Amino acid sequence: MQYQPQPTAGKPPQLSLFEGLIAHRRTPFGDVIPAPKPADDRLSEMTLSGSGDHCRLLLAPILRDLSEAADTRWLTLIAPPPALSQSWLRETGFNRDRILLLQARETQGALELACKALVSGCSHTVITWFPRLDKASRLKLRVAAAQGNAQSLNIRLG
């Protein structure tokens, strides 16, 4: 049994919400527009602030997941902060067979080293710790990551 509204004196019968939409050929919640495809951006950034212990506690599961990724290429850390040492990696239970730590030299900066690691295609993810990235640096990392079919992750520690 369906409810049929009765017309009141001098007023047309009131249509239910959906009957009115159907009569005007509209969808209930506006036109369904497919979500735009996300840009294939290969550069991500994350900011962590607080005590060093707290930041390492938040960072550990992310790095652990990346070190155990299905992709068999390296997880590369470029010039990590001193707190992320080999002993911390060992204590935290990372798959150290899949992690590569690279330190920048005076002749080769961290940005150049990160771009080389990305372009080589030997790493699925290259992590950097730049306090700020200007537009040109962002572009270099994006292009290098696209060429090497890799991801670039910059972590800002505050």
Q: How does this model look, in words?
A:
It is a single chain. The protein is an alpha/beta fold and 158 residues long. The chain has one domain: P-loop containing nucleotide triphosphate hydrolases (Rossmann fold). Helix content is 34%, strand content 18%. It has 5 helices and 5 strands. The protein has a 5-stranded parallel β-sheet, sandwiched between helices. Helix 4 packs parallel to helix 5. The radius of gyration is 26 Å and the shape is elongated. The termini are far apart. The mean pLDDT is 82. This is Cell division protein. One of its GO terms (biological process) is cell division. Keywords: Cell cycle, Cell division.
Summarize the topology.
Elements: H1 17-23, E1 43-48, H2 52-67, E2 74-78, H3 86-92, E3 99-102, H4 110-120, E4 123-128, H5 135-147, E5 151-157
Parallel strand pairs: 1-5, 2-3, 2-4, 4-5
CATH superfamily: P-loop containing nucleotide triphosphate hydrolases
Listing every helix as H and every strand as E from the N terminus to the C terminus, the arrangement reads HEHEHEHEHE
Amino- and carboxy-terminal Cα gap: 65 Å
The geometry reads as: elongated
CATH topology: Rossmann fold
Radius of gyration, Cα only, in angstroms? Answer: 26 Å
Task: Catalogue the unreliable spans.
Answer: none
Characterize the biggest β-sheet: 5 strands, parallel
Query: Number of DSSP helices?
Result: 5
Strand order, sheet with most strands: 1-5-4-2-3
Number of domains: 1
Percent strand equals: 15-25%
